[in-house]
Amino acid sequence: MKKLLTITAAALVAISASAQSEAGSFTLQPNVGVTYTTATGDGSEAVDGAIGLTAGVEGMYMINDKFGAALGLNYTGFNTSLNPYTNLSYYNLGTAAPNGKNVTSSNYYFNIPVMANYYVAPGLALKAGVALNILSTAKVDGEDEFSLKIDGKEIFPSSKAKDAYKSTFFSIPVGASYEINDFVFNLRYNFGLRSVRKNFSDSFNNLSFTVGYKF
User: Considering 17, 35, 90, 154, which has the largest number of Cβ atoms within 10 A of its Cβ?
Assistant: First the structure.
């Protein structure tokens, strides 16, 4: 049994080590996954978390056996669920409120992270960096336009949902990844640094899990 466990552990280390890139190498990693976004700050009491999707590619250069520098481009959903009756400040968020029910605001950004990677063990890396997020689309329950009505009376006229959001915001991504046979499993959390809506100081925090493959 001891021999079997030793052989199994050695095999796992060998597999992980073979997946980790060597010093001076450059790799590309397409990835896809899911996200979960919440909000903090002024106005966030009317915002609940929601699930989104993400897809993109990341290029990494290994400076030495332990450190790597990476630049990525992702199309990422920072989606939220909005509660119209938490408080009156909600009405400035620019969202629809049919029958007083929560509605989903689907906000997709071009997420551009610059990351430092440190391998604490073969195949296992800790990551931290900074990311620029550029707003691409914003829709409320699938619609580009929104209007707010209470008991059939229009409170705000129809407008572009995208107009309620700022065009960019910065975030701090931190996380970890594990590589095996060139597959990369990545868990990352983005801390929002500035407000995302024009009338409030709330920010998006985004948790993502992705699976990638290194070339």
Answer: 35
